[in-house]
Design brief:
The chain contains twelve helices and nine strands. By secondary structure, the protein is an alpha+beta fold. A hairpin with a 7-residue loop joins strand 1 and strand 2. The chain is globular.
Length: about 350
Amino acid sequence: MTALPDAAWRISRDVARHLGLGDIQDLVAAPGGRLNQNLVATTPRGRYFLKGSRYPDLETIWKEHQVIAFVGAHNIPIILPLPDRSGETVTRAGYRWWVTYPWVEGGLLGAGGVGPEAARTIGRTLGALHRVLAQVPVSFSASLPRRPLLNATEARMREMEAVISRNPNPSAFDRHVLASIAYRRTLVSRDSSSHEGFAFLPSQALHGDFHLGNLLINRSIVTGDVSINAIVDWELTCWGPRIWEVARSADLILDLATDLENGAPCLREYLSGYMEHAPLTSQEAIQLAPFYRASRVQSLWVIEEHYRRGHAPTDEIAIEDLGALDWWYRNGEAVGQVVGELVRSTKVIGTLVT
């Protein structure tokens, strides 16, 4: 394990001292995380997760803490940030704002570790979360960023093409981006007439980044059953159609290609678990796959991150994104069929029970 620089120790000790946690005895880099600086500190009082935010402004961090407090008050498994003596949950140290959380045990599942039972548990958790987030007060939700952004894509693509054109020796990444932009333009023109239903999709507050890396999971050694100890990393909390997060989370959590080949057992369990708490409408079922495909076409942030920094920790995602986008355009209808079948069968069962 690579030793952390002295600056990391100095900053972490400043944070721990400010919060009255005692002197740091051990400090290691936390696994995962691409854009924030995450550390795990051990003091005489216990272990703590220190998050050095990438955001220079406090407003984004405060919004994150507000939504964490709201969902935690409604029995959603979360971890509250530690306050200082004045009640503030943010500490300035070095060149970042730092937030400290008590350490909560929980492992991370890889996509290969998500079978049907785990998929149902995860879907049930997301459904319960969405049911609570739908109750976020309008006064707060109005300030949340809107996602996904389905506009101004052409202008943003032209900006990146202009940046690349100024380089006399385009890199392999540059060439990949140009191919990606060309393919996205083809898809935008192909689907431009099929988005009429998007404007009528119901929207609400969303976690914004619900995937395996943000779920602390406990798996029973005896039974193999999965439970979720905490949902973490709320910095991308946003306002948008919930079907975007339902589809995106399935895309990130499940091996959809293999699952569809086998009859979609994991996708069916994931969606069934979700609808136990948050039933989908027929309109949402019809638009889920087309809306998510459109959001992927127009999601350029990983590419933009590269050109903002010159090199970014998200470059690997940007390279993989084109293949994943193509998969959704070849298989999105199959995903949509599974969603539609489940919504219809759920309504029939509900009618019979009534």
